[in-house]
Amino acid sequence: MPTAEAPFRRIANDIAAKIRSGELKPGDRLPSTRELAETYGVHMNTAYRAMSLLHDRELITGQPGRGTYVAEPPA
């Protein structure tokens, strides 16, 4: 029986696809966790997990007090 993709993975994959396609470029500011939760219609914890996954994949970087940005590609 097929299972649906977890919402946090769907959000992370959507943002990752935008980064790969160039729609989101290094240095672009990402929406806040609250804004992502509202956009995707999920709980803030789900949006937080998506952002954590992107951070683990080294696609985004956080700057305390400033926001979250698309990371520079690895050298």
Automatic annotation (TrEMBL):
InterPro entries named in the record: Tscrpt_reg_HTH_GntR, WH-like_DNA-bd_sf, WH_DNA-bd_sf
Alphabetized UniProt keyword annotations: DNA-binding, Transcription, Transcription regulation
Domain HTH gntR-type: 5-73
One Pfam family it belongs to: GntR
Protein known as: Regulatory protein, gntR family
Organism: Micromonospora tulbaghiae
Phylogenetic lineage: Bacteria, Bacillati, Actinomycetota, Actinomycetes, Micromonosporales
